[in-house]
Design goal:
The protein has 470 residues and is mainly β. The chain has three helices and 37 strands.
Length: 470
């Protein structure tokens, strides 16, 4: 059964000013910023971290590593030198996948390629035409923003549609119908997630200046048939774009997503925007929703995958980190680390607060990055997952526009200043700053003692490479 208009979060109301999600703006801000021994397994057991079988723990098959979106792997990096680097069209914002000794990368320029993890030997490369949004000088071409997912010898990527390739040789197995109708604006900002025989992906407006409604959509992994697609806002609303991967709780047959602000002025509080929602995995029906900022005029998007620990659900929004009790769905705490808006006033921007879904967890602590635009750098911090208490905080050398990874006992994050920053996960002590030779807004993947990510995000950040450190 296919469901395209299952119940949406919320109802309609009064007028508010639209602020937009502006992924292109975040890349431009990143460009401006360029100018201007493992304890995890022990912690995970104590914290109730559920990342699946050993094959998943020893690999990085999904954009957020696992269905709980922990972005954590038990093995620390074997070294902190650049092992290899390979060209990839347009650079990367999403993380690569690491499985079976291979790295699979999907780029902003529309390339999907596979390399050997050990030495970077290229195994195959496929190119797809980027989807074009807008017109004239405002037109933007978008390849693959969020990254890829790998399962059962299949690689799934998402732009204006989902595509499935064979892991062994990159052959195209299926291509789903485009999500957007003729003259539509839908684009999959969120990386695909594979669970229970389905591919789940979140979308919003490609141009981020239309009345498009954000959605979570589900496709059959076997053949790409769309099973359901749930709008995040009611008919007549807009925004609620899903910017990051969804999270899946297989035991509850539940899907969680975070949504962004409105693109354009709409009546009322624009329900479903700036929210955390829970959908039924089987048919996409709404089960629960909590809107953080009704009538938001400041662009306080929820921009991360909802991270699941044994007791909590946590997300990053532009005004900090929010957490709920996983059983009762009651709010537990909110913790701001840096200002959500510029000192001179106005809406939240990419250089303010968390950007790019920058959250990871070892089950006990939630590790986050948060930009301080006035100071010109990001802050990394570890928060107690149950209470939100700050366990440590440390300044980074630049602004951060992508999700970090926990690799054993270290936290790894890229910066627009052109470094890989490595901090001790226990206390935030700086371990290393690895020069990359170019700015990065690339999310990090880690497995088998290697850290892999993209450099460049053209045309906004110069460079187009996949880099392996270890």
């Amino acid at each position: 059964m296919r469901r395209d208009d299952t119940p949406r979060p919320g109802e309609a109301g009064d007028m508010q000013e639209g602020t937009g999600l502006r992924r292109a703006t975040f890349l431009k801000a990143a460009a401006a910023a360029v100018v201007a021994p493992s304890l995890l397994a022990e912690r995970a057991a104590a914290g109730g971290l559920a990342v699946g079988p050993k094959a998943v723990r020893d690999a990085w098959p999904q954009a957020a590593h696992d269905l709980a979106a922990t972005r954590a792997t038990p093995e620390p990096p074997s070294g902190l030198a650049v092992r290899w680097r390979r060209p990839i069209a347009g650079g990367m914002t999403g993380p690569p996948a690491i499985v079976h000794g291979r790295v699979v990368a999907a780029s902003l320029g529309g390339e999907v390629a596979a390399f050997d993890l050990a030495d970077g030997r290229e195994r195959w490369r496929r190119r797809f035409d980027p989807a074009v949004y807008g017109s004239g000088d405002g037109a933007v071409a978008l390849g693959f923003f969020g990254g890829c997912a790998v399962h059962g010898g299949r690689v799934v990527v998402a732009s204006d549609r989902l595509r499935c390739l064979r892991l062994g040789d990159g052959a195209l197995l299926w291509e789903a119908e485009a999500l957007r109708p003729p003259d539509g604006d839908d684009y999959f900002w969120g990386a695909p997630v594979i669970a229970a025989g389905l591919v789940l992906a979140g979308s919003g407006a490609g141009s981020e200046s239309t009345d498009t409604r954000g959605r979570v959509s589900a496709y059959r992994l076997a053949d790409g048939e769309r099973r359901w697609s749930t709008p995040m806002v009611p008919e007549g609303g807009n925004g609620g774009g899903v910017l990051s991967p969804v999270t899946v709780d297989p035991a509850r047959r539940a899907v969680f997503a975070g949504t962004g602000a409105a693109y354009l002025p709409v009546p009322g509080p624009n329900p479903g925007t700036s929210s955390v929602v829970e959908l039924a995995l089987d048919d996409g029906r709404l089960r629960w929703s909590d809107q953080l900022h009704p009538g938001d005029r400041l662009g306080l998007d929820v921009n991360s995958a909802p991270v699941l620990t044994r007791h909590t659900i946590a997300v990053t929004a532009k005004d900090g980190v929010w957490a709920w009790d996983r059983a009762s769905r009651t709010r537990l705490w909110r913790r701001g680390l840096t200002p959500a808006t510029p000192a001179e006033g106005g809406p939240a921007g990419p250089v303010n607060g968390p950007e790019g879904g920058p959250i990871a967890t070892d089950g006990r602590s939630v590790h986050v990055l948060s930009n301080d635009g006035d100071a010109g750098h990001a802050v990394a911090a570890a928060l107690d997952a149950r209470t939100g208490e700050v366990r440590w905080r440390s300044d980074l050398g630049g602004l951060a526009f992508a999700a970090p990874a926990l690799a054993g006992d270290v936290l790894c994050a890229t910066t627009a200043s052109g470094d890989l920053e490595v901090l001790a996960a226990r206390d935030g002590r700086p371990v290393a700053r690895v020069p990359l030779g170019g700015p990065s807004a690339g999310a990090v993947a880690a497995a088998h003692g290697r850290i892999v990510f993209g450099v460049g995000a053209e045309p906004f950040l110069p460079g187009g490479e996949l880099v392996c450190v270890g």
